[in-house]
Amino acid sequence: MKQRINRPQASDNPLGTAPVFQLIAKFAIPTIISMLVNSAYNMTDQVFIGHSVGMLGNAATNVAFPIVNFSGAFCQLLGVGTAANFNMSMGANKKDEAERFVGTGLSLIPLAGLIIMTLVLCFKTRILELFGATASVLPYAKMYLSITVFGIPFQMFSFAGSFLVRADGSPAYSMACTSAGAVLNIFLDWLFMFKFNLGIQGAAMATVASQVFSGLLCLSYFFRFKTFKISFRHLGFRLKYVFQIAKLGLSNFFNHLMMMLVNIVMNNTLTHYGALSVYGGDIPLAVSGVVGKVNNIMSAVTIGLAQGAQPIWSYNMGAKNYARVKSTYKKALSAALVMNMLTFILLQTFPRQIVSIFGTGDELYFEFAERYTRIFLFMVFVFGVQIISVNYFTGIGEVKKGIVLSLSRQGLFMLPLLVLLPRFFGLDGALYAGPAADLMACLLAAVLVHRDFRKFDRKNL
Q: pTM here?
C-alpha cells in the first residue's frame, strides 16, 4: 500500500485541518453577505429609480450595467488571481512568493480602475449606444453613467481587494466593508432622490459616495494585514507575478467578460425584436434590467459559496491534500443545489411580486416581466454546477479547464443561441436561450469535474 506523505505545513493552518463544512460556512457566509451587499449597490439604485423615475430609468441602468460587468471582470482577474496564488504559496510554505503576489496584486488593482474610468469617460455616449440604448433611454443613461464612472476605481479596489482580505483569514471584515457601503447607499439614495429631488443623478451620486467609503475601508485593512506586514517594498509590477495572477484569474475574468457581451447582445436583441411585438423596444429593455438584478441577487448565494470555498481548494491543492479538495467541492455544490432549488420555486411562484419591488409599469410591462422571469430563469436550479466548478478549477490551478468552463454558458452556448433562436421564434427565442445555455453548461461542468476526480483517485490518496 502506498504510504501517505506527511505534510506538516498543513497542520499549522485551519484550512488544512478544520472540518470542511465548518470552514466553508466560515468563509462562505460572510462572502455570501458580501455578494448580496455588492449586488445591493445596483439593486438599490434600481428600486429607487424605478419608483421615482419609472420604466425608462430602469432601462437606463440596464444599459449602463455592462460597465459594471466589465470592471467586475478585472476585479475577478486580479482579485481571484492574487488570492489564489497567495493561498497556494502559503499552502506550499513559500512565504516570500506569497508576499510578492500580494504586493503585485495591490499595485495592479488601482491602476486597472483608473484606466477603465478614463476609457468610459472618453467614450460614454458611443458605449451606451452600443449597449442598446434607445433614443428615449439614452439621456437617462448618460446622466447616470457620467457620475457613476468616478466610483469605478473605488468599487474595483473594494471588490477585488475583498478576495485578498478573505484569503488572509478575515471574511467578516470583507463583509463589513461592503455592508457599510450598501447601508450608506440606501440612505443616500433616499436622501438625494426623495428629499433633494435629484432623480437619477441622485442615485448615481449615492452609488459613488458608497463605493468610495467601501474602497477606503478595504484599503485600511492592508495596513494591518495578518499574514505579514505589507510595506512599499512589496508593491510593484513584477512581470513573473503579473502573468501568474492573470493565469489563475483568467477563467473568472472571461466569465464576467462574456456576461458583459451577452448583456449587450441581449439588450440589442430585445429592443429589435421587442419593437416588432406588442411590447415595443423599451419594455423588454427595462424588464431585462430588472430581472438581471433579481438574478444577481438570487445567484449571490452560489457565487458566495464558490468564492468562500476558494481558499480551502487553493491551500489544500498547494499542500497536495487532494481528498480534502474533493470533499470541499462536494459539500459546496450540495449547499448550492439546495439554495438554487429554493430560488427556482420562488421565481416560478412569485414573478410579478418580485418584479414589482423594482417599480411600477402598465399591464403589458408586468405581463412580459412574468413571462421573462419564468422562461429565462427556468434552469436556475442547476446554476450552481457551473459556478462552483469554475471557481474549483481556478482554485486548484487548472487554468485551461476553468477558462473553457467559464466561457461555456455565456460564450459557447448563450451567444450563439441569442443570435439563432430569435430568427425562428422572435422575442421568445431570446428568452429560451437562457435555460438552454444553463443546461448545456451544467452538463459540461459535470463531465470536466468527474474526469478531474478520477485523476485524483488514480493517485491512491
A: 0.76
